[in-house]
Amino acid sequence: MFESHAFAFFRALHSLIESVPYIINIMVGKEEVESRRLSWQTAKKSLNDLEAYTLINDIEKLREGSVYKQLDNLVNISKHRRLPQIDSGVFCDSNAKFINKEFDSNKCHELSVSVFMIESYEIIEPFVVMFIYELAEFLSHSATFP
User: Fold this and answer.
1) Burial label, 71 (beta-carbon count in 10 A; 0-12, 13-18, 19+)
2) Of 44, 89, 108, 131, which sits with the fewest C-beta atoms within 10 Å of its C-beta?
3) What are the pLDDT digits (tens) for 9-32?
């Protein structure tokens, strides 16, 4: 049960950050709202057309960070292949952690589940809120916004 709740949390957080390209498209893009072609690349192109370089840099900084990469790796493995095992720590009296051999790289080795939940939430959620706010602010002062 713990694993299913943990993965539900990580998937929800991942879907929050992956909704940013769709939000950008709604606010400034030229694609249909339900387009399947939307991605980080189309989002950055839309922002580049507006010369919103600071916002592009914010996206790149987030996506290059270890928390985003770990979250993306974890969720994609759990969505497309299997649920990575979690060592509950019950038998060794320690915190629950991801088992290293379950991942494509060593990026998640010995990663505490609860610590990663807190760390990823504290980075992803404020980023999305502030990014949307900053995009709205940029658009309200932009002469190139349609």
Assistant:
1) buried
2) 89
3) 999 999 999 999 999 999 997 888
Query: Which tens digits make up the pLDDT trace of 60-107?
Result: 999 999 899 989 988 887 676 666 666 555 545 567 666 665 555 555
**CA atoms of 59 and 43, how far apart (whole Å):** 10
Cα angle, residue 65 at apex, residues 12 and 53 outer, rounded to 5°:
100
d(CA 123, CA 92): 30
pTM above 0.70?
Answer: yes
Separation between Cα atoms, residue 122 and residue 137, nearest integer Å? 23
Paired sense of beta strands 86-87 and 97-98, if any: antiparallel
Q: Is 133 strand, coil or helix?
A: helix
CA 46 from chain centre, in angstroms, equals: 19
H or E stretch at 44: helix 40-49
Q: Chain centroid to CA 69: how far?
A: 8
| Sequence letter at residue 41 | Q
